[in-house]
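Design job #97: recover the sequence.
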C-alpha cells in the first residue's frame, strides 16, 4: 500500500515503537486522505516529530518531517506574547485605555472602544464581536496591512460593541485591534514584529504567514459541495485575509511549534528573560474569564496538574498545542483538514500516553 511506503519516507515508525507512536499511526491510517503531524518534547529535548500521508488528497508526494503547518488561532498566543514584550519595555500598558495609543483614530471611536484595554482584548472580555463584517473578508491584499487594518476596524469602532465588557466573548476582532495598537506604538507591522520579537528571538526559522507554500508541505482542504478538495497556497482563498494576522495566520513547522511551547515553559520558570520575564509569562496563565488567560486556555489535565492549550483553524486546517508545566511536556497535533473532533480526541489520547510515561518509574 502507498501509505506504508509513506511512513518510511516521512520518518514514521513501527507500531511496536511505543504506545504513543502506535496510537498516532493508527489515527493516521483511520483518515488516509489527509496528512497528520504529531510532535512532542520533554524539557529541553529536541522535539520528536512524526508526519504521515501526502500533501493532499490524490497526491503521491509525502509530507516532509520539517514541513510547515497552518496553526490558525494558536497565533493568538504569539500576539499576546508580543504585547507582553512591548509592555515589559513600557511601550504600552495592559490596563491603559487603548485610545491613548491611537491619537489619530480616537475621535472616530465609540467611547466604549476608547476605554477598552489590551488586557480585555487579549482575554476576550472587551465586549467585541467575534469578527468584522463579512464584506471585509473580501479584502485580500497584503499591501499596506496597517492601513487595511485601520479600514477594517473603522467599519465597526464608531458604534458600541455588541457584547458586555467583562464578559467572555471569543473575538478575532479583538486580537486584530491589539495587533493594530502594537503597530501604532512601534511604527512596524504586526508581521514584522512577530518576526523580530518572536521568530528571530527564539530561532523559529520556519515561521511565516498564510498557507505554507513549500512543495512538500501539506495543502489545506476546503469543502466543495459534498467533497473536500485541496486548495493551492497560491490562491487568495488558501487562508483568511492577511489583515486578520494577529488573530490567526501563522504557519510553522511542528518542531518550531513545540519549541514555541518549550519557550513558554522555560520563561515561566524564569529561564528566558530575553524572551519573557517569569512575571509576564505567569500573567499570561492567569485566568480572567471562562478558563482564558492572555493567549492561552488554562485548565487541568487528567492527573489534576495544570494544562495550557490553544487550538486553531482557518476552516481548512486544524491544530492543537498543549503545554503540561508540571511534567515539562509539550505536545502538538496537526492536520490539513478541519476535523476538530478527531484531532481533539487524538490529542487527549496522546497527552495521556505522555503523562503515563512520565509517571512510570525508570527501570533499575
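Job complete. Output follows.
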Amino acid at each position: 500500500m502507498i501509505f506504508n511506503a509513506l511512513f518510511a519516507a516521512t520518518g514514521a515508525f513501527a507500531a511496536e515503537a511505543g504506545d504513543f507512536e502506535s496510537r498516532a499511526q493508527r489515527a493516521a491510517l483511520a483518515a488516509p486522505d489527509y496528512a497528520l503531524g504529531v510532535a512532542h518534547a520533554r524539557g529541553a529535548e529536541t522535539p520528536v516529530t512524526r508526519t504521515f500521508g501526502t500533501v493532499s488528497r490524490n497526491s503521491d508526494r509525502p509530507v516532509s518531517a520539517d514541513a510547515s503547518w497552518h496553526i490558525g488561532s494558536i497565533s493568538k498566543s504569539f500576539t499576546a506574547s508580543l504585547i507582553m514584550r512591548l509592555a515589559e519595555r513600557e511601550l504600552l500598558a495592559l490596563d491603559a485605555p487603548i485610545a491613548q495609543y491611537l491619537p489619530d483614530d480616537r475621535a472616530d471611536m465609540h467611547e466604549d472602544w476608547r476605554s477598552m484595554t489590551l488586557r480585555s482584548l487579549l482575554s476576550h472580555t472587551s465586549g467585541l464581536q467575534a469578527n468584522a463584517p463579512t464584506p471585509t473578508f473580501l479584502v485580500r491584499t497584503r499591501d499596506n496591512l496597517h492601513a487595511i487594518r485601520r479600514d477594517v476596524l473603522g467599519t465597526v469602532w464608531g458604534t458600541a460593541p455588541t457584547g458586555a465588557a467583562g464578559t467572555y466573548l471569543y473575538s478575532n476582532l479583538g486580537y486584530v485591534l491589539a495587533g493594530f495598537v502594537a503597530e501604532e506604538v512601534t511604527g512596524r507591522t504586526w508581521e514584522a514584529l512577530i518576526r523580530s520579537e518572536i521568530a528571530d528571538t527564539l530561532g523559529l526559522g520556519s515561521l511565516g504567514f498564510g498557507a505554507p507554500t513549500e512543495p512538500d508541505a501539506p495543502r489545506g482542504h476546503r469543502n466543495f459541495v459534498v467533497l473536500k478538495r485541496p486548495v493551492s497556497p497560491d490562491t487568495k482563498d488558501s487562508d483568511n485575509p492577511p489583515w486578520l494576522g494577529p488573530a490567526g495566520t501563522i504557519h510553522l513547522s511542528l518542531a518550531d511549534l513545540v519549541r514555541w511551547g518549550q519557550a513558554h515553559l522555560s520563561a515561566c520558570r524564569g529561564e528566558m528573560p530575553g524572551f519573557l520575564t517569569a512575571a509576564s509569562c505567569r500573567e499570561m496563565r492567569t485566568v480572567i474569564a471562562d478558563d482564558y488567560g492572555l493567549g492561552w486556555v488554562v485548565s487541568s489535565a487528567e492527573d489534576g496538574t495544570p494544562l495550557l492549550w490553544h487550538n486553531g483553524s482557518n476552516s481548512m486546517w486544524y491544530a492543537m498545542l498543549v503545554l503540561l508545566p508540571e511534567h515539562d511536556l509539550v505536545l502538538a497535533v496537526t492536520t490539513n483538514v478541519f476535523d476538530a473532533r478527531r484531532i481533539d480526541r487524538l490529542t487527549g489520547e496522546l497527552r495521556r500516553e505522555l503523562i503515563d510515561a512520565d509517571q512510570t518509574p525508570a527501570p533499575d
